């Protein structure tokens, strides 16, 4: 039975239950809307809004040092804080893991199963908003080894040693829908030519926890996504691909994975790049 390469990056609901009152631990809930958080969240969790806290108006990830530092400081997170990330949807926590690793945060972990597993187990929930005294945070420059730019993605289209991995839904991959539609109206539908499609949700069990290492290996290797190749995941805005980066890099130990966080939001609006449907 294969085991995760880095099981230490996951925490389970029991561990979090035992550390809810630890002042060195900060729990982060991330979502598109604050309404689910306002109704019910893990006690002590602070809320990050994807659209206003993490993204720019054009839906690109905001990695400006001042913006990141302001967000973490307002959340009571210092460079030494242990961060546990989750969302109303289980995959979001792994995206936050990628973001925080990008700016050099050491102690970040993903709640395996997220909110759904926590609530299903009947664990305590809160409705009052969580706030903490502001901290001092200093972000490092974004790590270029964790992301891949559009020009390199385009240059890889004919490389047999490289896999473009589309982590969106089948409907998005086929160009039938936009999960998140860019604001300018210049986007095109479809997928990057030659991209292999593996919906990121296929990596999860029904309770929102990650499937076993053996199951994950089978899922990806059956599509030709193997550790000897360079893997560039992408999705709509870089979230589900950041999640896929986490699964491949930390759970399966793939050595050459970089997130194309520009993703379809960027590619679909470039007039001269190829698109398949």
TrEMBL record:
Keyword terms: Repeat, Transferase
A GO molecular-function descriptor: thiosulfate-cyanide sulfurtransferase activity
Keyword Amino-acid biosynthesis: no
Origin superkingdom: Bacteria
Catalysis performed (reactions): thiosulfate + hydrogen cyanide = thiocyanate + sulfite + 2 H(+)
Domain Rhodanese: residue ranges: 21-127, 158-276
Pfam families assigned: Rhodanese
Protein name (database record): Sulfurtransferase
UniProt lineage: Bacteria, Bacillati, Cyanobacteriota, Cyanophyceae, Nostocales
């Amino acid at each position: 039975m294969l085991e995760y390469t880095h099981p230490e990056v996951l925490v389970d609901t029991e561990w979090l239950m035992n550390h809810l009152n630890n002042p060195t631990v900060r729990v982060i809930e991330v979502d598109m809307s604050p309404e689910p958080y306002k109704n019910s969240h893990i006690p002590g969790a602070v809320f990050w809004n994807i659209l206003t806290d993490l993204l720019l108006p054009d839906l690109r990830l905001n990695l400006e040092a001042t913006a990141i530092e302001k967000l973490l400081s307002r959340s009571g997170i210092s460079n030494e804080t242990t961060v546990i990330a989750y969302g109303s949807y289980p995959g979001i926590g792994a995206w936050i893991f990628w973001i925080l690793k990008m700016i050099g945060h050491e102690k970040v972990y993903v709640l395996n199963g997220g909110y759904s597993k926590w609530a299903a187990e009947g664990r305590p929930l809160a409705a009052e908003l969580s706030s903490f005294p502001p901290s001092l945070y200093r972000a490092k420059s974004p790590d270029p080894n964790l992301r891949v730019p559009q020009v390199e993605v385009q240059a890889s289209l004919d490389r047999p040693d490289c896999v473009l991995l589309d982590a969106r839904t089948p409907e998005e991959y086929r160009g039938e829908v936009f999960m998140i539609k860019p604001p300018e109206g210049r986007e095109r539908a479809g997928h990057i030519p030659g991209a292999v499609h593996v919906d990121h949700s296929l990596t999860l069990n029904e309770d929102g926890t990650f499937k076993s290492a053996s199951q994950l290996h089978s899922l990806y290797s059956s599509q030709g996504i193997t550790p000897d190749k360079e893997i560039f995941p992408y999705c709509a805005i870089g979230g589900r691909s950041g999640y896929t980066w986490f699964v491949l890099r930390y759970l399966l130990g793939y050595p050459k994975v970089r997130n194309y966080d520009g993703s379809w939001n960027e590619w679909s609006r470039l007039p001269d790049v190829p698109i398949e449907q």
